[in-house]
């Protein structure tokens, strides 16, 4: 199974640590290397990486890194990297004709989350989001994380500012090509985001959820989260 990694944005909140967010070192390894290693340890060896901002630098680094990690990396260029993250996903459409994993270049997760998604059934045109029902766990910023309302194993609503929610979006998905149809439908409504596509899929009853249980994940999006991630890595929890 292939894994798509979205790595096109600027990452301005971590600018003090490096100009290219995916290449910012954390405990000696670039963020995106740790993402790749996590998925690789779960059995993934084919990656599609969407780059944009400072993309040439990232692509060169990944070309050098891939052989040492024992993986292949296919590059997709997003020249509209200043738009929402769904644009990056859609630009990879030609590379992904079978079920695939989707994750972000700055989300460090327990490899067990990847394994659980890979073992989950990929129904026709469905997308399954790994969700965290531990909404009182202080690891991720509740004011910044994407919120999810789940009912009977499906997503009812998803977004940054929804008030009725019972889970957090971990940023890790098992997708079918139905994701691209949903992205197009969401874009037609003026929403270029992955969450917009998931709300479209929710309306079609095709947005499923997988409970990560007590597995750890963190969105390394600002200095506070970066420090927490370093602590987790030191403790061997990621």
In short:
This protein is α/β, with parallel strands linked by helices and 238 residues long.
Question: What is the topology?
Answer:
Blueprint: E1 2-7, E2 25-26, E3 29-30, H1 31-41, E4 46-51, H2 55-69, E5 72-77, H3 85-91, E6 100-104, E7 107-109, H4 111-119, E8 127-132, E9 147-151, E10 154-159, E11 167-175, H5 178-188, H6 194-203, E12 207-211, E13 217-219, H7 223-234
Parallel strand pairs: 1-4, 1-6, 4-5, 8-12
Antiparallel strand pairs: 2-3, 6-11, 7-13, 8-11, 9-10, 9-11
Pfam families: NTP_transf_3 (PF12804)
GO molecular function: nucleotidyltransferase activity
Protein name: 1L-myo-inositol 1-phosphate cytidylyltransferase
Q: Note the run of SSEs as H and E.
A: EEEHEHEHEEHEEEEHHEEH
Please work out how many helical segments DSSP would assign. Answer: 7
Low-confidence runs of at least 5 consecutive residues: none
Structural class: alpha/beta
Question: Which architecture does the CATH hierarchy give at level 2?
Answer: Alpha-Beta Complex
Shape: globular
Protein architecture, described:
- The protein is globular and about 40 Å long.
- The model has no long low-confidence stretch (mean pLDDT 97).
- The chain has 7 helices and 13 strands.
- Helix content is 32%, strand content 27%.
- The chain has helices at 31-41, 55-69, 85-91, 111-119, 178-188, 194-203, 223-234, and strands at residues 2-7, 25-26, 29-30, 46-51, 72-77, 100-104, 107-109, 127-132, 147-151, 154-159, 167-175, 207-211, 217-219.
- Strands 1, 4, 5, 6, 8, 9, 10, 11 and 12 form a 9-stranded mixed beta sheet that branches. It has a two-stranded antiparallel ribbon with strand order 2-3.
- The chain has 238 residues and is α/β, with parallel strands linked by helices.
- Helix 3 (85-91) crosses helix 5, helix 3 packs across helix 6 and helix 5 crosses helix 6 (194-203).
- It has a single domain (2-233), classed as Alpha-Beta Complex (Spore Coat Polysaccharide Biosynthesis Protein SpsA, Chain A), CATH 3.90.550.10.
- GO terms for molecular function: nucleotidyltransferase activity.
């Amino acid at each position: 199974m292939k894994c798509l990694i979205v790595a096109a944005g600027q990452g301005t909140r971590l600018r003090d640590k490096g100009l290219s967010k995916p290449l910012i070192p954390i405990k000696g390894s670039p963020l995106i290397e740790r993402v790749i290693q996590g998925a690789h340890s779960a059995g993934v060896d084919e990656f599609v990486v969407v780059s944009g901002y400072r993309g040439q630098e990232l692509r060169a680094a990944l070309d050098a890194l891939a052989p040492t990690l024992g993986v292949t990396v296919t590059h997709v260029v997003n020249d509209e990297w200043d738009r929402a993250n769904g644009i990056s996903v859609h630009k990879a459409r030609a590379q992904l004709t079978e079920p695939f994993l989707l994750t972000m270049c700055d989300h460090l997760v327990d490899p067990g989350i990847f394994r659980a998604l890979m073992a989950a059934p990929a129904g026709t045109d469905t997308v399954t989001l790994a969700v965290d029902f531990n909404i009182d766990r202080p690891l991720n910023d509740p004011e910044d994380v994407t919120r999810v309302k789940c009912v009977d194993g499906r997503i009812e609503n998803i977004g940054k500012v929804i008030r009725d929610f019972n889970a957090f979006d971990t940023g890790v998905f098992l997708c079918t090509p139905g994701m691209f149809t949903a992205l197009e439908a969401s874009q037609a409504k003026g929403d270029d985001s992955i969450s917009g596509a998931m709300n479209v899929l929710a309306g079609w009853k095709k947005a499923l959820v997988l409970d990560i249980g007590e597995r750890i994940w963190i969105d390394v999006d600002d200095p506070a989260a970066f420090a927490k991630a370093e602590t987790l890595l030191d403790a061997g929890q990621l």
